[in-house]
Amino acid sequence: MSVSGVVLVVDDEELNRKLLRDLLIARGFQIEEARDGEEALHKARQLSPDIVLLDVRMPRIDGFEACRELKGDPRTQLIPVVLLTALSSVEDRVAGIESGADDFLSKPFHQAELVARVRSLIRVKQLTDQLERTENILFTMAAAVEAKDPYTEGHLRRLADYASEISLALGLSPRIITVVRHGALLHDIGKIGVPDAILHKPDELTSEEFDVIKQHPVFGERICRPLRFGAEVGPIVRNHYEQWDGTGYPDGLVGEAIPLGARIVAVADAFDAMTTDRPYHPAMSITSAMDELRHGAGIQWDPHLVKTFVSVMAQTNKPSRPTPS
Questions:
Q1: Domain boundary at 98, 128, 158, which?
Q2: Which CATH number is 181's domain given?
Q3: Which residues sit opposite 83 in a β-bridge?
Q4: Mean pLDDT rounded to a whole number for the chain
């Protein structure tokens, strides 16, 4: 299958840009050009190319720094970057890897190899774009589930913020914090498969109806499998109703056998449920909710995570709002 796309060629030498431009246009690619790293950053953010071919030695901002900035910006971090350079030392290659480059080609490069690598990385980018669109659809579905219940308005945003605060306090990596945040946003997406008559029943559920409810984390895990982080988000969605003492569902996991992300979301979810009005109880005060969490620590919830969350709340009164990933 033929792969084409938009290639941003970045080099301060006009002759080098012309060589790449002619080579890639002849292979069916669209070309955009930049003369240095600063212009490259502007064009990458404006045009969102499918790949960036980036020279290393350039004025103002060199290729290593430009690559670091591209990979550190949520708007451009998924764009593949290939560093093109005459530098060949191990130190230079290590610098390229540490800057976040997806590939590294030495000048003079073989034309067939460069074209093959461009096609391969664009194919990966296109697959990533498809997964990102899938994620956006799932987040929209999760919001639709939330919107069915007026008592849970804003629950997903608050839950994601609380879970992010706990994760930050634990010193988890930015990538894992993103996974936990996604798990929080999608934790109840499986309820889309539960009949509204059961989901919003005002009376006590029968044992059969509760068995249906208990399957929604399993449905949710299946729905999340296509995500980029599906293998890590899935267990959060599946196991956030597990309890520390093993009496939760759907798998009856005990203690640290429960995935960490699921334990974080369980604490955050419980706190938000306690501090907002629900059909079955009025909102508790923050102090009362903290007392409830302490009482259930080591029984329902991970005692270390409860202690961490209580400490965060004591320091800030309410969690700050991290920027969504």
A1: 128
A2: 1.10.3210.10
A3: 54, 104
A4: 85
